[in-house]
């Protein structure tokens, strides 16, 4: 936030509004108060917009936490699949029809990974 934004309503302006209210009398108090309130509201809106713009600019280049988490889960599933698949392939290779058994094993592992990727896509 710049110094200019912080000093958008100088103290002398507030003091001038108070003096004007005292000079004009009680019948103009609400008009002076409304004008000052509008000025303050405008300044607050500008400050909030500036802060939101700063935060948006800071976060635009960063991936979302959920994206990082899903990517991590996908990687973990792939690693676990490989760790499980290799020993199971060696175990199934001793079956009576190893080609069919190994094919079904890898098809099942691919299906689990595919379903997970499909379920976690955006």
Descriptors for this entry?
disordered N terminus; 81% helix; 122 residues; mainly alpha; rod-shaped; 0% strand; 5 helices
Structural features, described:
- Keywords: Membrane, Transmembrane, Transmembrane helix.
- This is Integral membrane protein.
- It comes from Lipingzhangella halophila.
- By secondary structure, the chain is an all-alpha fold.
- The chain has two domains: about 55 residues; about 55 residues.
- The longest helix has about 30 residues.
- The N terminus is likely disordered.
Helical amount among residues, as a percent range?
Answer: over 70%
Rg over alpha carbons: 33 Å
Which residues sit in consecutive blocks of at least 5 with pLDDT less than 50? Answer: 1-5
Number of domains: 2
Supply the number of helical segments.
5
Q: Which class best fits the helix and strand makeup?
A: mainly alpha
Shape: rod-shaped
Number of strands: 0
Note the gap between the termini. 35 Å
Strand content: under 5%
Summarize model confidence as the mean pLDDT: 79
What is this structure, in a nutshell?
The chain crosses the membrane at residues 73-93, 99-119. The protein has 122 residues and is an all-alpha fold.
SSE layout and pairings?
Blueprint: H1 3-6, H2 11-24, H3 29-59, H4 65-92, H5 98-119
Helix pairs in contact: 2-3, 4-5
